[in-house]
Amino acid sequence: MSTSSTTSTTSSTSASESSSNKVILGKRSHTETIEKGESNNGQMHSRNRYRNNPPDFAVLAFKYSSFYPYVKYTKEGKPYIDFKNPEAVRELTYCLLRNDFNLILEIPLDSLCPPIPNRLNYIHWIEDLITISETRQDRTIYGIDIGTGASCIYPLLACTLNKNWVMLATEIDEKSVEYAENNVLRNNLESKISVVLNKTDKKILLSEEVMINNNIRFAFCMCNPPFYESQEQYEKGVEIKQTPSLSVCNGTSREKFTPGGEFQFIKDILDESLVLRNKIRWYTSMIGRLETVNKIVRELKRTGIDNYVVTEFCQGQTRRWGIGWSFGSQRPSTSIINQTSKKLRKISQPKTEFRFGIPADSHDVIGCILVHLNELDIDGNFNDENGTFFGSAKTNTWSRAARRQRMKSSECQKESKELSSSSSTSATSVTTTASTTTATDESTVFETLFEFTLRLEPWKSNATNTKVTFSWTNGKDRNVFESFYSHVKKWMEQKFAANDNE
Ligand SMILES: C[S@@+](CC[C@H](N)C(=O)[O-])C[C@H]1O[C@@H](n2cnc3c(N)ncnc32)[C@H](O)[C@@H]1O
To answer: Is 352-394+449-502 the same fold as 3-345?
Structure first.
């Protein structure tokens, strides 16, 4: 059976064990949880509805007569189900989808039965990634689910949770396509989800049916690839699992196996992404084995892609991983980069958030920073409500060379003013004009180097210490942003040290 069913087992087992610990989560927006910088910490995604609210088998059995026969009770009266029984597992999945998402599905008994909490973790992580680039919540978000399976689980859940999402679901297996299409129709989601049969297993995205002749610019693609390359590798994988599998082994061979295993499948997506580039903003995949995460990160680096994120999907004792990469210049926040274990942070891209403290109140600090940003010709808007500045730099105005150049041109201007006030010669005015033009040209010729936000905390309080946080939100060159940040930090520290000494 596929490892995904094992995920269902361990999750539901641990879920029922912790059912005394129920907390109903209030509805929180994507941006809210991202801003709070919440990481997985060995748990489900912070918006996953099952994180602190595991399924209650007794309640489900009472509500759904089809599930009732599968629920048994321990001597202590604790409800449980036999995860070795594929029908019981499938009924549980049906009940959760119906009860919590108002979705009705039909999945063949020999096919993969998707564990819902695990599938939600991946969708919530995609929501976080998309939030970086899509600030307008009313805009249609286009996504692709590669290998949607008979259940069509990702598109169905994703479009139910996100009303502005539209998804293309791809699949190579004809029977699965038929089931997936019927599942879409059954839930009246045909205006949101299209299922296509990918006629070649040699191509994943670059096939005629998927991206060739498709003019849509997709925000993301997602994929739960077949994990193993052979039955032998699968059996080995099962053997080395630390906890014995409690679950039945369902899943067709197409769902479990692919030549070269998951590494080759994701590597193929990576190779195709090098052709498609910005036609899809975030290329992502689920990963079943930790060693594959390291191998794919090495491939990303080898091809020069530095804008990537890795994450860990936790569900009970089972771990899965997620990887995403982009050719765009939008940078994920540090909290998205950090949505993983400490171990994986080492191979993630470095942080995009930088912080220092200034021993003064926020009013004095912002006054000083804004004057200096103005001197540096940094464009931007300051939001006085929350103490946040949104800025962009067109050209490097803070480097030593740029500052020397600025000093030279202001000296020139001073000289020319003095000369023109004593004797107005045409030669001097030409010099003045020339130097101004050079400066103007420099700032208009270059595109935006980077965008950033600058936040002061605590804002509008009498605290005599202010935390200044710079976040790199857009740009290709990390070194340029970091040199700007270092310059402003040094300048501020010197300024306030000087004030202290006065
Ligand atoms: C592990 S299953 C995932 C099913 C479902 N997405 C889920 O998460 O439960 C992988 C699926 O990918 C499909 N697949 C394999 N190669 C493919 C390709 N080149 N294009 C589209 N689908 C493919 C398989 O048929 C299988 O249904």
So the answer is: no
Q: Are 292 and 269 in contact (CB under 8 A)?
A: no
171 annotated to a ligand binding site: yes
Q: Is the CB of 251 under 6 A from ligand 1?
A: no
Range of lowest pLDDT (212-221, 240-249, 378-387): 240-249
Q: How many residues does the chain have?
A: 502
Q: How far is the CA of 123 from the centre of ligand 1 (A)?
A: 17
Q: Is 176 in the pocket of ligand 1 (CB under 6 A)?
A: yes
Is 148's C-beta closer than 6 angstroms to any atom of ligand 1? yes
pLDDT of 419 reads 56
Query: Is 499 annotated for ligand binding?
Result: no
Mean pLDDT over each residue of the chain, to the nearest integer? 82
Strands 280-287 and 218-223, bridge-based pairing? parallel
Task: Confirm whether residue 251 is marked as ligand binding.
Answer: no
- What the block records as the tokens of 434 is 């020339």
What is the CA(62)–ligand 1 centre distance, in A? 34
CA 159/CA 176 separation, integer angstroms = 19
Mean pLDDT of 217-223: 96
* pLDDT top residue among 287 and 239: 287
The rounded Å distance from CA 173 to ligand 1 centre is 8
Q: Is 17 annotated as a binding residue?
A: no
Please work out whether the CB of residue 151 comes within 6 Å of at least one atom of ligand 1. yes
Predicted pLDDT of residue 18: 29
Measured from the Cα of 154, ligand 1's closest atom is 6
DSSP conformation letters of 350-392: PPSEEEEEESS-HHHHHHHHHHHHHHTT-EEEEETTTTEEEEE
Nearest to 295 by CA among 350, 347, 238: 347
Q: What is the pLDDT of residue 340?
A: 74
194: left (phi over 0), alpha (psi -120 to 50) or beta: beta
Q: Name the pLDDT band for 256 (thresholds 50, 70, 90).
A: confident
Segments making up each domain of the chain, as ranges: 3-345, 352-394+449-502, 399-446
Residues 163-178: b if buried by 16+ CB within 10 A, e if exposed: eebbbbbbbbbeebbe
Please tell me the distance from the alpha carbon of residue 298 to that of residue 142, in angstroms, as a whole number.
Answer: 28
**Domain covering 352-394+449-502 assigned CATH 3.30.310.80 in the classification:** yes
What's the pLDDT tens digit per position in 127-162?
999 886 555 667 899 999 999 999 999 999 999 999
Q: Has the ipTM of the complex gone over 0.90?
A: yes
pLDDT tens string 412-440: 666 666 655 554 443 333 222 223 233 33
pTM attached to this predicted model: 0.82
Domain 3-345 is classified in which CATH homologous superfamily? Answer: Vaccinia Virus protein VP39 (3.40.50.150)
CA 147 to ligand 1 center in whole angstroms:
3
